[in-house]
UniProtKB/TrEMBL annotation:
Gene3D superfamilies: Umud Fragment, subunit A (2.10.109.10). GO terms for molecular function: serine-type endopeptidase activity; signal peptidase activity. Residues 1-25 are annotated as: Disordered. This is Signal peptidase I. Residues 35-213 form the Peptidase S26 domain. Its EC number is 3.4.21.89. It comes from Pseudanabaena cinerea FACHB-1277. Keywords: Hydrolase, Membrane, Protease, Transmembrane, Transmembrane helix.
C-alpha cells in the first residue's frame, strides 16, 4: 500500500496580516472635520465682542487710584442699549472729535460726573453738582483748576456761550440733553470733559463692570459709589 507523501509536506506559512493604520491627523483634516464648529465659535466670539462684552486694559494713569496701568477689565456693552449711564459709573467711550483729542479713534475710560440737565462748576478743589459739592472718595487729589473759565478749558471752541451761565455770583455749565460730563479720577492728569467738553450719548461704548486682572484684592466687581 502506498502512503500519501503530500500530507507530510509542510504547509506554506503566510505572514500575519497587520492592522490597518489610521491616517495621521493633520491641521487640514481637523479644519475640514470641524469647520462648522469652528465657524460657529468664531461668529459667537465676534458677536459677543461687538454687541455684548469685551476685555479692555488700562493704558494710562488718568483713572488712578481706582484703575491702574495694565489693569484688565470686562466692559458690558449690551446694557447701554436700554439703561443710560448713572452718576459715578465708569464708562468706556469714543471721545468727540476736536483739536484737544490727539486720536479720536482711541477708546477712553472715565467716570460719569454730570448727567443731562445738571449744573456743574469746579471751584475750591471740588466738583459742584447743582450747587452741592460732590462726595468723591475715589479721587487722587483735589482739583487744581477752576471751571467754567476760558483759561482752564483747554478747548476754547468746545463750549458754546449758552452752555455757561451764572447764578448767585457763581458760573456753571449746564449739561445739554443727551450728553454727559465725564472725568478721570486722577483729576489733574486726565484728558476729560474739562479739556474737550461734553460727551455725546452716541459716543458711548459700554460700562466697566469687572476687573479680572491682576488677581489681587482689587479684582472683582467695579461698584458704583453711593
Amino acid at each position: 500500500m502506498s502512503s500519501d507523501k503530500s500530507s507530510d509536506r509542510p504547509k506554506p506559512q503566510h505572514p500575519p496580516s497587520l492592522p490597518e493604520q489610521e491616517p495621521k491627523p493633520s491641521l487640514k483634516n481637523f479644519l475640514v472635520d470641524n469647520l462648522p464648529t469652528v465657524a460657529v465659535a468664531v461668529l459667537l466670539a465676534v458677536g459677543v465682542r461687538i454687541f455684548i462684552a469685551e476685555p479692555r486694559f488700562i493704558p494710562t494713569t488718568s483713572m488712578e487710584p481706582t484703575l491702574l496701568v495694565d489693569d484688565r477689565l470686562i466692559i458690558d456693552k449690551i446694557s447701554m442699549r436700554w439703561q443710560k449711564p448713572e452718576r459715578g459709573e465708569i464708562i468706556v467711550f469714543n471721545p468727540p472729535v476736536n483739536p484737544v483729542v490727539p486720536d479720536a479713534s482711541k477708546v477712553y475710560i472715565k467716570r460719569v460726573i454730570g448727567l443731562p440737565g445738571d449744573r456743574i462748576s469746579i471751584r475750591d478743589g471740588k466738583v459742584f453738582i447743582n450747587d452741592l459739592p460732590l462726595n468723591e472718595p475715589y479721587i487722587a487729589e483735589p482739583i487744581k483748576y477752576t471751571l467754567p473759565t476760558a483759561d482752564d478749558a483747554l478747548c476754547s471752541g468746545c463750549f458754546r456761550p449758552r452752555d455757561i451761565q451764572s447764578r448767585d455770583g457763581q458760573s456753571y455749565f449746564t449739561v445739554p440733553n443727551n450728553q454727559y460730563w465725564v472725568m478721570g479720577d486722577n483729576r489733574n492728569n486726565s484728558l476729560d470733559s474739562h479739556a474737550w467738553g461734553f460727551l455725546p450719548e452716541e459716543n458711548l461704548v459700554g460700562r466697566a463692570v469687572f476687573r479680572y486682572w491682576p488677581l489681587d484684592n482689587r479684582a472683582g466687581v467695579l461698584a458704583r459709589p453711593q
